[in-house]
Amino acid sequence: MAKHNTVRALVKRGISSELAEKISDHEFTVTSLKSTSIDELIKAGFSESDATDIMSKIGAVGEAKAVKGTKEVKEVKEVESTKEAEEVEEPKKVNKTRKRKKADVVTPKLLDEKLNELLLPKMIISELKSELSDKKLSEDQLDLIIDRVTNQYNKARVEPCEAVGVVAAQSIGEPGTQMTMRTFHYAGVAEINVTLGLPRLIEIVDARKNPTTPVMTIRLDKEIASNRDKARAVSWDIEVTNVSHIGDILTIPDEMMIVIELNERLMGRRNISADEVATIITDDAKTNVDVDGLKLKICPETHSFRDLLQLKEKISGLTLKGIQGIKRVVIRHEEDEYILYTEGSALKEVLEINGVDPARTMTNNVHEISMVLGVEAARNSIITEITDTLKEQGLEVDIRHIMLVADMMTCDGEVKQIGRHGISGEKASVLARAAFEVTVNHLLDAAVRGYVDELKGVTENVITGQQIQMGTGDVTLVAKKYRGS
Description:
By secondary structure, this protein is α+β, with helices and mostly antiparallel strands. It has 24 helices and 10 strands.
């Protein structure tokens, strides 16, 4: 209120409203300006011409006071006293605030007070607190930092009525035209390939339930992360083990028998015994197994060559150990720890393995993350996957465009594709749906059902040749009715 009155009083003296606002921001009043010199105003940040103009306008009133004649002097004094009474309701408090000496060192309490007053997102304020809490700053330095952060935030904000969807689509679509169609080796591991480039970007935005090349990056608990033997033991618990991995399967038609010759060295590496193999085959294949050292003999219940071959196929596909779907695990030493890269993905089962760090284990299957960890984790996974795919190709897109896409894909609590079976197909506008795909079907269905298109979106207004409700097109002017005297 006091500042508003100061601005009004200065404007009445012929000072521009913009300059009056600046004077008020520096906590000057008309009274304090009379005792201020031009040099002091220049030090406060005013240009020499502005300082001279201010003093001339304020000084003009002072000169009027010196006019001879009792009546004129009395009138001028009355005007002055009235204006000064308007500009400040509590002048003592304002002076105290302006004259408060700024702290040489910012205390945690002062830091919290200043940051909590800011109209900034909570994340930025918390980040400022964590960064500045251990720094020795003066109050002037803190004010400078706050001003710069506030200015940068205001510059980064989207203008009202901006077509953010179109800008995001252009920003991701244009770099997509420069992406390759090939499949590259994953993380430098020659044994594992993964889809990258444009095919991977299409997979993500189409929200495909089964990626072409599902892979996982598994990090281990800190206690075993630096021990190769323990990392290898965890990898054998994860990698699927079939009969073919630890021995040979032979079919003897004359005796109607299947013989499995186990390899002792391979079984030792995977930490499994012949008796365990026999027990699993007995339980899953529902047949008797005779153990003869490293040989397992299996006979079908019926003497049929067809049943013999079917039993062999069934035994070959049995999972003796590990997780179904994880075909291969590769161990790499990176950043002073061993990391497991898998060909195949099974997030829920992997997180249950002892030694796996659940907070740092990733998969490129977004739907798996959504089912196991929830939609918020899936949203973060979409952002990470799109960003990594673009960066791998040497392309950089502002993360806010990618975040907007991820938000649209997950805003309903499930992962939806950007297509006619997802976001585009769920638009309220008939013309917008028809403009995307299967135009005739949408128009016929809408005609049969008698749908009404309110023409509120961009696409439908472009089709009908109307002004879109974006930018200045979203502003409506309302004029008051003129009433004659």
